[in-house]
């Protein structure tokens, strides 16, 4: 059965854990996008970058549970540090205290898989453990979805793990110098800025006519 929402030109998109919107940068303004970000200063940057989007400062995990039926396409990027190989190595070297992996990641994958009728994708870092649910690996990210994500390669600064904010901004082509950040390091915000070309590629995979034939 063909999914009706994919046949429309305009989709209602939910962008969870939006950050400053790297994944959303190339989506254009043809869709109705709602972005959820719990840090007010980060949400302010996102809103300035994408003035046509609806930005809500709240808990993304809770918002998903309460509003998922209102959208056609959902992108979620739950917190990743407790899953990352870099942090796990730092814990082994006693640079950081060990923490339980944040299982919101798998809660959202299972929730979307079984209860959401539209298209969805969950993104996270490559983990220090074998994923509990098999993902697609694309560049330095894992993706879980209910549509086919084809593999592409991009030359982007997303693989840079070290560097000052100024250097990272030049590499990634984004500048947030004029903004005051609360509760976040500037270099960390830039480092987590998602590759816009992959963001667009995944949206195209979700909305392509080819995907309609697979439903």
The count of domains is 1
| CATH architectural label | 3-Layer(aba) Sandwich
Instruction: Output the number of helix runs.
Output: 8
What is the CATH fold-level name? Answer: Rossmann fold
Distance between the termini: 6 Å
Provide the CATH top-level class. Alpha Beta
Order of strands across the main sheet = 3-2-1-4-5-7-6
Largest sheet: 7 strands, mixed
Portion in helices? 25-40%
Please count the beta strands (DSSP E, at least 2 residues each): 7
Rounded to the nearest angstrom, the radius of gyration is: 17 Å
As a percent range, the share of strand residues is: 5-15%
Note the overall shape.
globular
The CATH homologous superfamily is termed Vaccinia Virus protein VP39
Description:
- It is a single chain.
- Residues 1-7 and 209-215 have low confidence and may be disordered.
- This protein has helices at residues 40-49, 60-67, 85-92, 104-115, 165-172, 186-191, 196-207, 209-212, and strands at residues 12-16, 32-36, 54-56, 73-76, 119-125, 136-138, 141-145.
- It has a seven-stranded mixed β-sheet with strand order 3-2-1-4-5-7-6, sandwiched between helices.
- It has a single domain, classed as 3-Layer(aba) Sandwich (Rossmann fold).
- The protein is built from eight helices and seven strands; from the N terminus they run ββαβαβααβββαααα.
- It has 215 residues and is an alpha/beta fold.
- 32% of the residues lie in helices and 15% in strands.
- The radius of gyration is 17 Å and the shape is globular.
């Amino acid at each position: 059965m063909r999914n009706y929402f994919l046949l429309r030109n305009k989709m209602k998109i939910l962008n969870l854990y939006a950050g400053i919107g790297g994944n959303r940068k190339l989506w254009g303004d043809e869709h109705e996008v709602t972005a959820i970000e719990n840090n007010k200063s980060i949400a302010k940057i996102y809103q300035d970058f994408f003035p046509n989007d609806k930005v809500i400062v709240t808990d993304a995990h809770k918002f998903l549970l309460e509003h998922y039926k209102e959208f056609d396409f959902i992108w979620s990027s739950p917190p990743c540090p407790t899953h990352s190989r870099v942090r796990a190595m730092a814990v082994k070297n006693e640079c950081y205290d060990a923490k339980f992996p944040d299982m919101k990641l798998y809660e959202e994958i299972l929730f979307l898989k079984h209860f959401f009728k539209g298209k969805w994708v969950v993104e996270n870092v490559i983990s220090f453990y074998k994923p509990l649910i098999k993902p697609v690996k694309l560049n330095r990210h894992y993706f879980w979805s209910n549509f086919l994500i084809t593999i592409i390669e991009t030359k982007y600064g997303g693989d840079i793990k070290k560097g000052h904010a100024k250097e990272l901004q030049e590499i990634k082509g984004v500048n947030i110098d004029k903004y005051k950040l609360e509760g976040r390091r500037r270099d960390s915000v830039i480092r987590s800025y998602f590759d816009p070309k992959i963001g667009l590629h995944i949206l195209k995979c979700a909305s392509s006519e080819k995907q309609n034939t697979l439903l």
